[in-house]
Every structure is written in structure tokens, then in C-alpha cells.
Amino acid sequence: xxxxxAHVHSFGFNLVHIVFVTKYRHxxxxxxxxNRLCQLIKKLCQTQDCELLxxxxxxxxxxxxxxxxxxxxxxxxxxxxxxxxxxxxxxxxKEFATELKPYYWKPVxxxxxxxxxxxxxxxxxxxxxxxxxQGYDS
Length: 138
Description:
This protein is of the alpha+beta class. The chain has a single domain, classed as Alpha-Beta Plaits. It contains four helices and six strands. A hairpin with a 4-residue loop joins strand 1 (5-6) and strand 2.
């Protein structure tokens, strides 16, 4: 059973799997950039009362990163993604300017948009059955 996390007036566990892709799918995410991205994302998640549970880039294609985040109820997914992409882009471009120079001449790092899916919890069939049976004795 997943441990529910307490928030101000609520409790729960809201897992989301997010994927960010580099602009033009350039293969620029090295081990060093991956490590720095994970550090930055962990800190940024904490500032929004979220928790980064896992962070891993595809070091084969080097063009995207997967995040598993427990999303706080006070922030929307799109707002969190915007915060993460904006700040990590700025910091990575600043810290790894030499490595990124051959790929990016404009101030970009991430492709517009992002991929996401909800994760964790009971399967949909179990949830539907649970809701359907509310108010009835088992």
C-alpha cells in the first residue's frame, strides 16, 4: 500500500510520469547534464510541495528525460512542468554553454510541450468496481 502524503487540507498520492524532450531532439543529455537536471528538478519539486521519486534520461538517444513525481494538489501539472522546463533550461544552458553551443544558438533547451501519464494506485477496473459498490454491504 502506498503511504498517503498529508497536505494542508487534503491527503493523497498523485503520481505522474512526465517526459521532457530536447529541442529538435538533439542528443545533448550526457551523464553530467542528466545528473544536474535531476538535482535541479528535485529542488524545484520541493519548492512546490511535490516530490521527485525518480529521474532518468535515455542515455541511448540522449534526447529526453523521464520523471516520476508525486504531484501536490495545490499545483497543476502544466504549471509544474512550466516551472521545471523554464528553470532547468536556463540553468543547463548557462552551466553547459560550451557543450550545447554546436546544437543551440537560440536560448532553448526543451521542445514545446511534454508527455505525461498518471501512474500508481489501483487499476482502473478496481477503482470503477469500488465506486460502483459504494453504499452496499459486501
